[in-house]
Write a structure and sequence with these properties.
single chain; mainly alpha
């Protein structure tokens, strides 16, 4: 478990090193920054098209060379594409201006709905290496999954509430709503990611005595199985 003598700064540095930076930067920060820059200095649609092409390239290259799905890139691509299509149609169908808030709520419900599965959606979002490393150490304890379920519900509730609040602000205060979307874009994802790598260690440290008993019991059971089959 964590060394209790670690300073706060040591813990922060360790948590920062565990954030899936590649997926965050390539799948969220870069495309969102491209869109934001072009919304200020150039044609807004140009930035969206460049961001969409960027995301397709990232998803394709990671799938080819890493044989993995870039979850961040896929989510960003879908949300950006739906909001772009809605933008073209919003003059005919004004309710489509709320597409962004709908996207947020759907994403939140995906997180919440995955609570019915043995492995919640957050475990696909966090880096594969982090999940495999921690599961190898603590996976035999129920508290391993309880920590990830706690994190998962935080992401779900955040995005559902964001969708509701975002739609309210867009209807009553369009300019404030747009600013809110900017502030709660990649900065919010980064905060959630930091929470997601910080919380498990604290949770497992708190429940370590119970986890240790469960892990040792599982190991003893596994050690007895070969003898019983002999």
């Amino acid at each position: 478990m964590a060394d209790n003598t670690q300073s706060t700064w040591d813990i922060v540095k360790l948590n920062l090193s565990r954030i899936p930076w590649r997926d965050f930067v390539l799948g969220v920060f870069v495309p969102m920054t491209i869109v934001e820059i072009f919304s200020v200095v150039g044609p807004h649609l140009t930035g969206i098209y460049i961001a969409l092409v960027w995301l397709v390239l990232v998803i394709t290259l990671i799938a080819i060379f890493k044989r993995a799905l870039s979850v961040f890139s896929l989510i960003t691509f879908i949300m950006l594409l739906t909001q772009t299509i809605a933008g073209f149609l919003s003059s005919q169908y004004p309710f489509l201006r709320l597409t962004a808030s709908f996207d947020y709520m759907v994403l939140g419900l995906i997180f919440i709905g995955s609570m019915l599965r043995p492995r919640p959606f957050i475990m696909a979002v966090i880096g594969k290496d982090t999940i495999q490393r921690t599961e190898a150490k603590f996976g035999k304890s129920k508290y391993f999954f309880k920590a990830w379920f706690d994190i998962n519900i935080v992401w779900g509730i955040f995005y559902v509430l964001l969708g509701i609040f975002y739609s309210y602000m867009l209807v009553l205060h369009a300019e404030v709503g747009s600013l809110l979307g900017l502030l709660l874009g990649w900065p919010a994802v980064l905060v959630l990611l930091y929470f997601s790598v910080d919380y498990p260690q604290r949770y497992w440290t708190k429940h370590w005595d119970k986890m240790k008993v469960e892990i040792e019991a599982a190991q003893q059971y596994e050690n007895r199985k070969p003898a019983a089959l002999a």
